[in-house]
Each structure stands twice: as C-alpha cells, then as structure tokens.
Amino acid sequence: MLSDHVLPSPSAGSLFASDALLPAGWARDVLIEWDAAGRLTAVTPGSQPASGTPHAAGPVLPGMPNLHSHAFQRAFGGLTEFRGAAQDSFWSWRTLMYRFASKISPGQLEAIATWLYVEMLEAGYTSVCEFHYLHHDADGRPYADDAELSLALLRAAGRAGIGLTLLPVLYQTSGFGGAAPGEGQRRFIRSTESMLRLLERLRPACEAQGARLGLAPHSLRAVPPDALREALAGLDAIDPSAPVHIHIAEQTAEVDACLAWSGQRPVAWLLDHAPVDARWCLVHATHMDADEYRRAAASGAVAGLCPTTEANLGDGIFDFDAWRAADGRWGLGSDSHACVNAAEELMMLEYGQRLATRRRNVGADAAHREVATALTLAAVQGGAQAAGRAVGGLAAGRQADFVVLDALHVALQGLAAPAMLSSHVFASHRTSALDAVVAAGQPRVAAARHPLHHEASAAFVAARSRLLAED
Ligand code: NGQ
Ligand code: ZN
User: Fold this and answer.
1) In the sheet that 402-405 helps form, which strands lie side by side, from edge to edge?
2) For position 429, what pLDDT does the model report?
C-alpha cells in the first residue's frame, strides 16, 4: 500500500517569468498570480520583478490537458510488441488487452493509475480525462460498491494532484446492430439505468475533489442508438453541459462495419443522430471523408488526437490540414500510454503529418511561426474544452496549471524562449528539459521529480509483477 502522502495545503502564490506562453503568444516579464483555490487572479506582461516573488527557472508554458486515458493500459505497455499472428493488428492487440484487463484488481488499478498520473505530471500534463470502462469484477459482477473502480481512479488523481475529468463508459454490445458482448467485455457492461445511477453516485465525490464528471459512450460499436439517446438524456438531467466523449472511426474496419449496418460512415451517422456540439470529444476520428471533416469541425466538437497510440496500433493518419482548414478544434490524449509525454505527442503529431504530406512545419500557423508554439496553444485550448474544466492556458479566471522549462538544460541554454520550446519538443529528451510543474496553483513536480515518484513507481512495478505472475 502507498503511504499517506500529504499534498501541500492550498495557498495563494505568484511567479515572475521572463518569458511565458500566454493564449495569444509569447510575452515578456510576466507576473503570474493565483489564489488559494488555485485560480489565476492576474497574468500581467511587462511587470517589474518584485523582491520576494519567485523567479521561474525558464520559460513558463500552459500545462497540457490530456484528453484521453485508459489508465490500466499503462501496465501492459511494451508487452504487445511481438509477433502473435501472421498479421498483427489493432484487433489482435485488443484481444491481448482484454486478457490483461480481465485480471486487474481494484488495488492494482489504483497503484497503476497513481503512478501513471505521477508520470503525467512529470511529463507536462496537468489534467487528464479518464475514459473509464473497467467497472465490474473479473466475473462481470458489480462490486459491493458499484463505484469501486471509479473511486480508485478519483483517489489516484487526488493523491498525485492531477486535475481529473472522469468519464464512466457506457458499453453494451460487441458490434453494430446490437451484437451480444463477448467474454472479454464482461467487466465493461452496464445497462443505461445502471450508468445513470453510477453518475449520480459519483457526482458528489467528483465535486468534492474539483473533478468534472462526464459520460463516454464507448463507440457506436458498443452503444446502440436507443441507449445512446437515453443515456444522453439522463446525463442532461444531471448536468446539461457535462462533457461527452466517444471513440469513433479509428480503424477502417469500423467504417466498413458501420457502412454495412447503416449505409453511413460512423462520423456522418453520429452527426445525423446525436446532438454533437462543443461538449463532445470525437476520439481519434481518423477516418473521415471530406464532408465529415467539414461537418465535424463545424459542430464545435474537439478531435481527440492520440498520435503515439494511433501509430502504435496502426490506426492511420488524421488529416490535420483538412481539419484546420475547417477551423476544427483538437487536443491530445495519451490513450494506451505507450508513451506518457506531452511534448512527444506534439512531436509525433507533427512528424506523422510531415511523413504523410512530405512538407515541413505543418503545424505552424499564420499567428505562430514556431510549430511547437502553435501546436501547444491549440492543444491546450482544445484539451480544456474536452475536459470541461477551466484549464485553457495562462489567463485570469483559469486554473493555475503550468510548466516551467529548465533554461539551463543543454538543449535550451542561451536560446530565445520560442526556440527553447522548439528544442524541448524536437531536440531534447522531452522530460529532462522540464524544471517544475504546477497544477491548481500547487507545486507537483520540482527539479523534474514528483514527491511520490519512488513510492508510486515501486507500487506500480509490484502490481504489474503480480498481474503477470497470474498469466
Ligand atoms: C479501448 N482503445 O477502449 O481501450 C480501445 C480499444 C476498442 C483504443 N481504441 C477497444 N485505442 O476500441 O474496441
Ligand atoms: Zn481509447
């Protein structure tokens, strides 16, 4: 078990940064101030450094919201990178993942998630949307407390000190047209009614922790149309602005199956049958036609891009040019946690686009010439929208979530601030150039380490060893 690590008690604070990345771009001599609730009260460029105000060790960036996580999958990272079938695929990976998921106990989930959230903070993420579908025990029976595993995730986020959007997942079928769920899916299954009861049960616990509660219909494969409608109506009765996330069009086989079932592609079907708007996060949305790119962007929904997982699983490449031409919003998720590092996701996103288009600096835009700057600002904004929390960057009224780069790191030293961020993303080891991470105004990571680093990593390793020994 983990010891009782006590997070610092909330207090107001301030920081002077020679350079800070504000929503409109880089600014000089910025005084950042927040209150005891962890909210920014003022962000003032052109300030004088006052004595007594701490100075940042390098450029200050907005903390990155991670918009898509399946925490338990962190423990089997690296364990599917071998040839199983003659042709391994997303679907053969999923079979291995289900086998692993079938064994995890509540204590193991908590240990895995606590370490994962520590890793996230150490790698520049200050909040996370947890797309949580492991609901029941290994036999598919509800725990004595039906919210057991959801509460384990809430505790893990609370102990690590990362902001949370908890998205309990509705999962009912194994394919389009109401196909019965398989053996490997029994821990995921809930009636719509049981989901709405779970949301009611979780609401006060989330509120107490400053976490946001939303709902995640797993996919159109897993949630039939009637259940989707009823669940959304039930969610609206609880919180009409709660976030809604769904996996969609990640694999071409899903597109083909949806066409066979309905005559429509998944994103087109969803846009025609659900009230998709700015509350929604379309996770992956990899395979859309030109019309779907235009319509999905116009809906105001966020595209939840998970570049390293999409590469790891062989999903395909999102058409970033088409999405941006339509003014689409987007953010980043670490999903299966093959990689847990905000800067590395940015790098992978940009490199995927370079490989596909044979161009460079695809992510730069008219307002920001530096790719890393442009991508960071857009991903923070889209991530905040998907999270349904005020975590959209360094501005008064938002949460004090930020990252301080280490200006003395070899890859950064002597460079101008925008080039430091570029080097952090494209030319450093990407965690080594981080000095400090602050979430909700509280220092979570100092000198690149979270206080729970050793304890939580040891508990993670022990949990993984036990899981593998049961194989
Ligand atoms: C998941 N993961 O729910 O963990 C999915 C796989 C599925 C990703 N799509 C399962 N990356 O989509 O059926
Ligand atoms: Zn996912």
Assistant:
1) 40-44, 25-34, 13-22, 60-62, 402-405, 434-439, 442-446
2) 83
Is residue 409 flagged as an active site residue?
no
Ligand at minimal distance from the CA of 338 is: 1
Is there a single domain that holds both residue 210 and residue 317?
Answer: yes
Is 336 close to ligand 1, i.e. is its CB under 6 Å away?
yes
Three-class DSSP category at 366 = coil
Please state the length of the chain.
471
Residue nearest to atom 4 of ligand 1 (CA): 70
Task: Examine residue 3 and state whether it is found in any structural domain, yes or no.
Answer: no
What values do phi and psi take at 163, rounded to 5?
A: -70, 145
pLDDT of residue 86: 85
State CA 237 to chain mean position distance: 26
Domain range enclosing 275:
64-387
Contact residues for 394 (Cβ-Cβ < 8 A; gap 6+): 20, 21, 22, 23, 30, 32, 40, 43, 60, 62, 402
From the list 231, 143, 236, the residue with the least C-alpha distance to 191 is 231
| Exposed / middle / buried, residue 149 (Cβ in 10 Å: 0-12, 13-18, 19+) | buried
Ligand 1 pocket: which of 67, 68, 70, 76 to mutate (most atoms within 8 A of CB): 70
Residue type, 200: E
Residues 427 and 284 in one domain: no
Q: Which residues of the chain have pLDDT under 50?
A: 1-2, 4
329-332 and 13-22 strand pairing:
unpaired
The reported pTM is 0.97
In ligand 1, the atom with minimum distance to the C-alpha of 306 is: 11
Report the pLDDT value the prediction gives residue 470, as an integer from 0 to 100.
Answer: 85
| Burial of 471: CB neighbours in 10 Å, binned 0-12, 13-18, 19+ | exposed
- Asked whether residue 47 falls in the same domain as residue 111, the answer is no
Q: How many domains does the chain have?
A: 2
Residue 431 is predicted with a pLDDT of: 76
Instruction: Say how many Å lie between the CA of residue 19 and the centre of ligand 1.
Output: 40
